What does this fold into?
Amino acid sequence: MKQWFSRFTRTFYSDNKEDQKNIALKVEHSHNVCLNMIAIAKGLSLDNNGIRLAETAALFHDVGRFPQYAEYKTFRDADSKNHGLLGVKTLIQEKVLQALPGHERALILNTVKFHNAYAIPSRQGLEEIFFLKLIRDADKVDIFRVFIEYYDSPAEQRASATAFGVPDTPEYSREMLSCLARKQIASYSQIETENDFKLMKLSWVYDLHFDESIRLLLNKNYIDILIRKLPQTDEIQSAMVILNEYIEERLAGD
It folds into this structure.
C-alpha cells in the first residue's frame, strides 16, 4: 500500500515549482500523520493489527487531496470538493483495499470519508468512532507542524495552497480569545487575520481525544512555538494560561 501511494502521488508531480511544492507538502504530511498515528496507537496499547489498520487509514486519509489539487489548484474544500469523499472515490476506483477483509476495508473507507468532518457523525459504531478519533488527532498534530513551518519559511518557499488568504496584521478577534477561554473550538468562519488563524489552531487542543496526542504536541513543542508567534498582549497571555491549565489537568493523572 505504501508502494501504491508512492506511485500514485508521483503521477501528480509537476515541473511547475508552485504545484510541486503543494503536492510535496501533502506527501510529507501523509507520512507524518502515519508516524503520529503509530505513536498514538502504541500509547493506547493497540495490538499489531490495530496499529496496522490505523496506519493504513493515516496513509490514505488525504489521498483525495491529490486529484483535488490537480483539478482545482486548491486544498480548500469550500472552493472545490470534499477531499474525504474524493479519497474514498479514489481508493474504490483504484481497488487499493481489495486484498483486505471486508470489515477492515469498510473501516478504512469510513475513516477517510469522515476524517475532515466538522464533528464525528453521531451514527457511527464504537470502532468507527475510535478510529475517527485516532485519525483526527494524528492529523491535527501534524497540521500544527505544517503551519509552523509555513510561518518560519521565507515567502518564496511557502506552499501557496497552505495560505488561508487573510491579512498578516497585528489584529486578532476577541471572539477567538473567547472560544479559548471557554475551552471551545474556534470556527474557520470567524477568521479575519493570521493571528485569528493561529488562535483557531490552538483551540484544537480542546478537540484532541487522547492524552497521547497532547503529549505529542508537547514533545514537539508545537504549542509553545505557535504561542510565541502571537502578539504577547495581556489578553492573549490570559487565554494561554487557561489553555496550559487545561493541558496540565488533562495530563495530571499520567
